[in-house]
Amino acid sequence: MTPSHAPNLAAQDGLSPLTRATQQPLMLGLFLPLQSGAWTPTTAPRGTDWTFDYNAKLMVRADELGFDLAFGLAQWRGVDGYGGKTQYRKYALDPLLSTCAAATLTQNLILISTVHVLYGWHPLHLAKFGATADHISRGRWGLNLVTGYQPQERAMFGLGRIEHDQRYDMAAEFTDMMDTLWREEANVDWEGAYWSMQQAYVSPKPMYGRPILVNAASSDAGLRYAAKYSAGIRSARSSRLLPRSTPVRMPRRSTPFSGRGRREIRRLGRDTSAMNGCSAAISTSWVRQNKWSSNSSS
Please, are residues 261 and 223 in contact by the beta-carbon 8 Å criterion? Predict the structure, then answer.
């Protein structure tokens, strides 16, 4: 497969991928069709494909067109997917492995992987995998950390139901442990409410402090978690990349993010009035049909 012909922007400007992305007035993101049926359960004719070769070509083309990020969804379904005539999402690639593989074919594209961290993961596992993915991608790999909410998914792993807000308490401890492992230059002992570790260590450290963490949040507990830990939040109709040390301007639309989300970020001491930025999800057909020239800016 032919790698991207895009220039290596980090070699030119010396910026981290996240810093460069947040400087864009409009950030363009590609939702990858890693599942059969992609993002629309329909019997209408489609030109998308769930295979890695197809998705890799999309990411290479998006990189050449100047897109900022590509996003991979993760789901766990049974033999018939969502059932019905289409068996929607019966086939699905893992986004963590897919984006890591695509990192060697692209130059600048931020590559976001969804991981259900409460489905048997230990923070040490994901901290190590994340640091490795960070180096493979030269700081472009990102984690969409989710807790999972569908009972049949948890049943696949032999797990029982966990209350909604408790899931975010667990996600907070999980993230704190990963952050510590990414930061500390000594072995780490940790006795938490949900996980523990002794003499744990992760190397190499992520290139820019930690991988890029993002979330889609709408509940109060989800927004509290995302506002504290995430570099990017997608909620309802609005999306923002929110560097932890950077002030943010929020859209003043009537959405959960612009109300509760803004209040939560302010509660954490972050200025919501100074930074401009927004993102747009783009269908795969725009990339496939080459609607933009490769020198267009995003």
Answer: yes
Whether 248 contacts 275, CB under 8 Å: yes
Helix (H/G/I), strand (E/B), else coil: 179: helix
With respect to residue 226, please indicate whether it lies within any of the assigned structural domains.
yes
- Residue 180, classed as helix, strand or coil, is helix
Beta bridge partners of residue 145, listed in sequence order: 115
Banded pLDDT at 297 (limits 50, 70, 90): very low
Dist. CA 209–CA 115, nearest whole Å: 20
Which structural domain range is residue 270 located in? Answer: 23-36+48-288
- Domain total in the chain: 1
- Residue 218 clears pLDDT 50, i.e. is over it: yes
Kindly state whether residue 295 falls inside one of the protein's structural domains.
Answer: no
The pTM score is: 0.82
Tell me the C-alpha distance between 124 and 289, whole Å.
42
Q: How far apart are alpha carbons 107 and 264 in whole angstroms?
A: 35
What CATH number corresponds to the domain at position 185? 3.20.20.30
The order of strands in the sheet holding 69-72 is: 238-241, 232-235, 212-216, 141-146, 110-116, 69-72, 27-31, 279-282
CB 35 within 8 A of CB 264: no
Q: Per the structure block, which two tokens stand in for 19?
A: 């810093």
C-alpha angle with apex 182: 178 to 183, nearest 5 degrees? 120
pLDDT of 65 reads 96
